[in-house]
Specification:
- It is built from six helices and five strands, in the order ααβββαβαβαα.
- About 40% of the residues lie in helices and about 20% in strands.
- The protein is of the alpha/beta class.
- It has a five-stranded mixed sheet with strand order 3-2-1-4-5.
Length: about 160
């Protein structure tokens, strides 16, 4: 992120923000199901998003951190088949099998991670759609607070409760 920002400033070029999970989902062109990449964020949390990619790439739910149980509820509520991919699959495979009421499958290993070609292709698409930002405006996505931030908030909440 810092490198891209530096190059953008030095060359006076716009940046194209391609979220990790968007690029991972972009691997599954033509999928006849919802696409749900999951990355293990520990403590039963995942970094995830929900996508569709039949003829057009659609972001149904932007990438975010959420509880795995909550994600399963959201997917059950959508009522459509789901394809999971990402490094969270081995961690949450059993929980998915137990909690999901819609049909689901797991993507094959060769498309299970973010790939440079998918990032480039999606970046070109976002550029064509005018989804650029200046180097000054660019901020990295932090989907979850750091442990130090969470501990400070817990400490402040306890001190405030006295």
């Amino acid at each position: 992120s810092a490198t891209a920002k530096g190059l953008g400033l030095a060359l006076d070029k716009p940046l194209i923000h391609v979220p990790t999970l968007d690029a991972t989902a972009y691997n599954l062109y033509g999928a006849d199901a919802l696409i749900c990449p999951i990355m293990d964020a520990r403590r039963n949390q995942v970094y995830t998003g929900i996508y569709r990619f039949r003829e057009e790439f659609e972001v149904l739910r932007e990438q975010d951190a959420m509880d795995m149980g909550e994600l399963l509820e959201v997917l059950n509520g959508l009522g459509e088949p789901v394809i999971f991919l990402g490094d969270g699959v081995p961690v949450f495979k059993d929980q998915i099998g137990e909690g999901l009421t819609v049909p689901f499958s797991f993507a094959p290993a060769h498309v299970n991670r973010q790939r440079a070609a998918a990032v480039a292709a999606l970046g070109a698409r976002y550029f064509a759609e005018g989804k650029t930002e200046s180097s000054d405006d660019h901020k990295p996505d932090y989907l979850r607070k750091s442990q130090a931030e969470r501990e400070r908030e817990e400490r402040e909440a306890k001190e405030g409760g006295r």
